[in-house]
Amino acid sequence: PAAAPPALDVRGVTVRFAGLLALDDVSFTVAPGTVHAVIGPNGAGKSTCFNVLSGLYRPAAGSVRLGAAELTRLAPHRIAALGVARTFQNIVTTQGTVADNLMLGRHALSHAGFAASALRLPRAVREQRAHLAKAREIAELTGLGAHFDSPVALLSYGDRKRVELARALCLEPRVLLLDEPVAGMNAAERVRMTEVVREIRAELGLSVVLVEHDMGLVMRLADEVTVLDFGRAIAHGTPDRVRRDPEVLRAYLGT
Ligand code: ADP
Ligand code: MG
Question: Any idea where the ABC transporter domain is (predicted)?
Fold first, then answer.
């Protein structure tokens, strides 16, 4: 709805690396509860954009806002605490059980603190139980319910990628940043991941920003697409609209 405040507002973001304009005055808005894809050829600035949104890079100009909150120069953990969680493309957990990994994700939200938990104070015990219940709920939602107590090292690649997603969801984010969520997956794993992302959007009502090379996934999943080319946003719109845009075709086909 037009009256709703934007979940995430990216305005005029510029990032330079030693004279190279990695992002040049990039703006886009992610509406609440939608999936927004950022696509573009190699070197277009997609990862740089993600790193700005999650606070790893500070832009030379421009701003990123979540509702009324200014995220632009906050440290990554502060941005996470304000409700922006991210997954990493190449980091897949191999330690501990699924439950352990999800509880690590919950740890950032813990109020009781480690000392209180270690002393098993009543409040800490209650909090720990609530965290475990929430972790179990998120495992169910991401199709990991049956593997909750399994060592992550024994899971398939597709399941492990969903552990990474579930860990990010344990922060109960308002915005979820997915960095190439289906990279390295086979066809069946891709379909599964697509279903899970659809489901979490529907169930949790959060906004998703995803960087993705797989056009099929972008077309099936995204409500809105921003196309980057040489650091500039050259097109915005629905997947159907941007796939017909002459400038987008030129950027992709190099004609
Ligand atoms: P994409 O993710 O779309 O492939 P990137 O955001 O990784 O593109 O890169 C955009 C441009 O910025 C590229 O020309 C890349 O070489 C350059 N770049 C990215 N990160 C750095 C960095 N840390 N230092 C210098 N140049 C970088
Ligand atoms: Mg990249």
Answer: 8-255
pLDDT digits (tens, 9 = 90+) for 71-87: 998 999 999 989 999 98
Rounded to the nearest angstrom, the distance between the alpha carbon of 253 and the centre of ligand 1 is 20
Of the chain, the end-to-end C-alpha distance in Å amounts to 38
Q: What is the pTM of this model?
A: 0.88
**C-alpha span between 241 and 158 (Å, rounded):** 31
Candidate from 14, 15, 20 with most ligand 1 atoms within 8 A of CB, to mutate: 20
CA distance 57 to 75: 9
Q: How many residues does the chain have?
A: 255
Domains in the chain with CATH codes: 1-8+15-83+173-255 (3.40.50.300), 92-169 (no CATH)
Q: Parallel, antiparallel, or unpaired for β 224-229 and 35-39?
A: parallel
The answer to whether the CB of 89 is under 6 A from ligand 1 is no
Judged on CB neighbours under 10 Å (0-12, 13-18, 19+), 133 is exposed
| Closest ligand to Cα 228 | 1
CA 36 to chain centre: 10
User: Which residue puts its alpha carbon closest to atom 7 of ligand 1?
Assistant: 47
Radius of gyration of the chain (CA): 19
